[in-house]
Amino acid sequence: MLNTSYGFQGLLKEGSRHYSGLDESIFKNVEACKDLADLTKTSLGPYAMRKLIVNHIDKIFVTSDAATIMKELEVNHPAAKMIVMAAKQQESECGDATNLVISFAGELLNQAEGLIRMGLHSSQIILGYEAALKETLRYIESLNHYEVSNVRDTVEIAKLLRSVISPKLQGFDDLFAKIVAEACVRTLPRDPKKFEVEYIRVAKLLGGNVNDSFVIGGLILTRGSETSIHQFNNPKIAVFSCPLDTQEGDTKGTVLIKNANDLLNYTKSEENLAEKCVKEIAEAGVNVIVAGGSISEIVLHYIEKYKMMAVKVQSKFELKRLCKCLGATALVRLGAPIPEELGTCDEVVVQEIGSQKVTLFRRDDEDAKLATIVLRGATTNLLDDIERAIDDAVCTYKNLIKDPSFVAGAGATEMALYCHLEEEASKITGLEQYSYNKFAKAFEIIPRILSDNSGLNTNDILTKLYSANSGEKTYGIDIEGKQIRESSALGVYDLKNTKLSAIKLGADAAITILRIDQIIVAKPAGGPKPRDNKNWDEDQ
Known about the structure:
Oligomer: single chain
Number of strands: 20
Structural class: alpha+beta
Number of helices: 18
Strand order of the largest sheet: 5-15-6-14-13-7
Largest sheet: 6 strands, mixed
Shape: elongated
């Protein structure tokens, strides 16, 4: 159909939309991004507020984790989506500081809006922002405040992970910092750079108190044994990825039974085959059988007869992790394993934690590649939130192995950058000076949010921070003492690589949005609506 509209709209299909100009494109983009940043501002810091989100399948999330909030929100605005993508990239690369990306990008756009209303062109603002970003990335290298001397020192690691866990688990940060540090150090390979996040597993068991959480070397399965035997010390373990069922065949057959003897002997061959298979496994020295599928009743009977323990694992991913933990090979055939295919551990035991039966595969030697953190708590939402905090802390540990440099936290680094960039801005001649100065001012948003969320006098705190950070030492906000303190005395640190990545991603997202001067939205795809027929099951 011919589109009879005039101008650029006439070039597009009917139903398409086109926005241009300051009010329709730039200011609307900035407004949408500011609204997104305002949403997550209150979720920053140790006294962060939580958001209750009900997603499209009615699942409830109660969290202050910005990455989860962005993941579950279905943001539709194209400019705001860029900030969401930047936050997701930060989460995948560093696992932390997603809120910094969103808040910083939103504040940069807020500062840019004032300059555009003053009459500056977007390109002049972008030039100033890019120059300020380059200087920020250079200067932050000189702000190293702490460096990890030993990545296997549990006490030192726990002190550094506390600042990652504290915003999400205020009051339990010391407990979980120690638990995560112990789990990470326990699973650290001989070559630390080969450490993987998946080495740390989490088992969430409802009931009890959060303080009852603990860590073990090995893996926990949230189901009991299929047999009456519930414990073995130093067992030999065979892992099967196939069902333990001798009757399963690829084709169907028909059996003709002529008399009573045929009926009595019908299952004899099946029983003999099942006993032969189980006997071969038992003679190979196997004490524990792990099945990745179903276990038939007849096979289970003979497993019980030969005094072996049987455990079912429904997830193939869990089966793969168990093989890694035990040093076993998953078998795809039903039969006796060779010695090289068997795994072992210190102990296999079925325990009841709360009202949940679990099977513990405990392994405390150096070759153990897995550790499991057992979480206790009253609600599923609480356990999920703790799991997210643990995931962030484990990702931070992985990143600190690559670069163990830390900068001062609690808003100290941001205020030091603000003071330095403001001084640099005064040396610049030209219109870029204005945007360079606004880039510096955008860093003020982090200490401002920390102060606001803690109920402190923000103007008083920021004034003291500004004057204190003008010298050589860095000062941050002591939220509990309701004052500012020198960073080394405060003991709050942020990983330098994580901070660098967050600043770069936030600035890049803001600069990309400022480059947009027109928005063109195509007509949504989709066919005609289905017929309104209430009786779909009726034959037509």
